[in-house]
Amino acid sequence: MIKCKLLIRKFSILLMFALSFFYVLTFFLSPFTDWDSTFYPLIGKGIFRYHILPYDYIFDHKPYLVYVFYYIWTQVEPILNGRFAILAMVSMVSVAFMFSSAYRTDKWQTLFYLSIGGIIGDYLGGNTEVLQIPLELSVILMLCKGVQEHKIPLFFLAGIVSAIAVNINYLAGCVLSPIILYLFLGRVCTVVEFLACVAGGMIGLTGIFLPFLIAGHGKLAAYFDMQHHFLQHYGGASDERMYTFALVALYIVPLCPMLVVWFGRRDVCWGNLRERLLSLWFVFSVVAAILSGHGFYHYFSLFLIPGMLICLLVHRDAGGALSWRMMPLYLYAAFLMVSGIVSNINDMKRAQLTDPARVSQIVGHQKVLNINSDHSLYYLSDMETFDPILFCGQIEIYFGPQAADHYLDDLRQRPPFVLMPHAGCINHTVAPQVCSWVKDHYHPVYEAYKGKDPNRNNARYYNLYKIN
């Protein structure tokens, strides 16, 4: 009986290892698995190549440091397929090393737990969380050490890093600000230490926005005005927020067996400072994911990563006696790996339709107007946009009912090329008046679609038109 159990255990480990290997491998079959990741380097290109501040070149609603980091990454990392998965792996390893060093855990075991959380939270997709999470952990560790050793420079540095994290993703502010306030209001740190952290944050923000201040002419105000206008329309409706809340709750359920142990035997307010701040990191990350208003799976990494680190500490303290409590997570991760493998293989098949080299050859350095089509082609083909609002669907969000009028205003300026969904006029993803204008003034020069299913509303199906 014992030998049978041992054999089953070894087979399960081997199966999970093989599944994990193929899961990771599929992220290297195509240039990306998350659309957002391909968009960030485009705005970075405007900053570094053309010296244009956001958002005069291309618009997006996220803070601009994310575009700086992603563009630099695309320039130093030579591999196209799996580029953002590699960034995620670098991020995960850095989190594992920081955490294992501070919390005295085994590095490989830490990496294993992070991998489970990464699978559930789509970490390898390479969205902004891969930058945000290591920065949040580094701030927490600096604050811990600053409190324990009364080193004011660490508080100052934590403030600077907090400013950087917030300007990669604003949700970082929902996590770090309450933690810093807790240290002050809970009298864990002194007034001087708190003010040093605030001063670091202010100096960090000043340095970050210095290019806008030097440029003048209302550049900084325009930067925030565009974000504010877009986010007013982008914020989730009440039904979407309820859906997001339900999804977050669903993703927390597999963690509950370990969370009950953690919060049941630890004094969250007065216990060990590192463990206390880890608990707060998890709690405020759950709040941040809910406040996002959108049920995108990559947001769930925000709380899944600290949640898995909590599971790791519970498992370590119990000497492995609570391993059975991790079974829901293991099974869920295995299911998502199978689902992810299928999704990534389908992404590879869709990517083969685009032929970015051919599109780049046709377009050259001329500008292309995107009408609610695949914006990733601009990244893959290094194309130039005609309209600063490029991301698929953003013009519809930004201008609302006037979106068709905005497209017509662009078309009247006679852009050399137009990119549209292949079946956009049939499936009504493009307004009829826009379709009529393109039909009268442009002719197709390249099409990407599957012949057996041409009218499917597939994001990778597109038509490229050239002006008559």
Automatic annotation (TrEMBL):
Keywords annotated in UniProt: Membrane, Transmembrane, Transmembrane helix
Signal peptide span: none
Superkingdom of this protein's organism: Bacteria
Transmembrane segments: 12-32, 84-103, 152-185, 192-214, 242-263, 275-291, 327-345
The protein's name: Glycosyltransferase RgtA/B/C/D-like domain-containing protein
Species the sequence originates in: Komagataeibacter diospyri
